[in-house]
């Protein structure tokens, strides 16, 4: 279980993660990589990743849309084209790219299109935006492998959009109140609509 002994006061520095203590806009250092995940309501998605061993920084925001500086209210109202997205920096010596992508597929139902459970809207669409060729290759191959797994249990096609971060456009940070939301609001809403089936963990071709 994740321990919160490193948590900082939310008012100390709004530019640092309230649990991990790392900068929200942390750039990956040596042995680290950056990837972006959209898997439904970003409050619960972010919590899962900040609790994942090997993840060193998370932040919530919006990606894949066409408006500048979108607010949470605007994205939820529709029309900006953005998805609720979690920015994740991870240590590749502690968690492989294949493992973190498999985690992404397991924590939501990637077959639901513009929804996750009772959350309905384009902002809840499933997506991965990658920053390396290896990430992109593993994301595509993992999507195919997971489709094979869950289709045997009656699930339809996976609708997860996979593209490079460059194609996804600017990642816009959400308001301070949304960063580390479920630490600040322990009884807050979490949506975890899942298939219930394990995702294969693939290895790099290199």
Automatic annotation (TrEMBL):
* Top-level EC class as recorded in UniProt: oxidoreductase
Show the catalytic activity: L-methionyl-[protein] + [thioredoxin]-disulfide + H2O = L-methionyl-(S)-S-oxide-[protein] + [thioredoxin]-dithiol; [thioredoxin]-disulfide + L-methionine + H2O = L-methionine (S)-S-oxide + [thioredoxin]-dithiol
**One of the Pfam families matching this protein, by short name:** PMSR
Q: Which UniProt keywords apply?
A: Oxidoreductase
- Its EC number is 1.8.4.11
Q: Where is the Peptide methionine sulphoxide reductase MsrA domain?
A: 35-191
The domain of life is: Bacteria
Question: Catalytic center at which residues?
Answer: 41
Check the record and name the Gene3D superfamilies matching this protein: Peptide methionine sulphoxide reductase MsrA
What NCBIfam families does the record point to? Answer: msrA (TIGR00401)
Job of this protein: Has an important function as a repair enzyme for proteins that have been inactivated by oxidation. Catalyzes the reversible oxidation-reduction of methionine sulfoxide in proteins to methionine.
Tell me the protein family, please. Answer: Belongs to the MsrA Met sulfoxide reductase family.
- State what protein this is by name: Peptide methionine sulfoxide reductase MsrA
State the organism named in the record. Answer: Schaalia radingae
Lineage, broadest ranks = Bacteria, Bacillati, Actinomycetota, Actinomycetes, Actinomycetales
């Amino acid at each position: 279980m994740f321990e919160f002994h490193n948590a900082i006061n939310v008012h100390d520095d709004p530019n640092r993660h309230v649990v991990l203590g790392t900068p929200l806009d942390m750039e990956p250092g040596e042995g680290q990589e950056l990837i972006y995940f959209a898997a439904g309501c970003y409050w619960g998605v972010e919590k899962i990743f900040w609790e994942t061993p090997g993840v060193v920084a998370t932040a919530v925001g919006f990606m894949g849309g066409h408006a500048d500086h979108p607010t949470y209210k605007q994205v939820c109202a529709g029309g900006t084209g953005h998805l609720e997205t979690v920015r994740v920096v991870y240590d590749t010596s502690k968690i492989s790219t294949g493992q973190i992508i498999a985690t992404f597929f397991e924590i939501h139902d990637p077959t639901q299109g513009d929804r996750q459970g009772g959350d309905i809207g384009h902002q809840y669409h499933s997506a991965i935006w990658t920053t390396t060729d290896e990430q992109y290759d593993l994301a595509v191959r993992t999507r195919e492998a997971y489709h094979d797994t869950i289709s045997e249990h009656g699930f339809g096609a996976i609708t997860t959009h996979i593209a490079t971060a460059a194609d996804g456009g600017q990642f816009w940070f959400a308001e301070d109140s949304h960063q580390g939301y479920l630490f600040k609001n322990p009884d807050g809403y979490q949506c975890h609509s899942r298939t219930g089936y394990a995702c294969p963990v693939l290895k790099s071709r290199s």
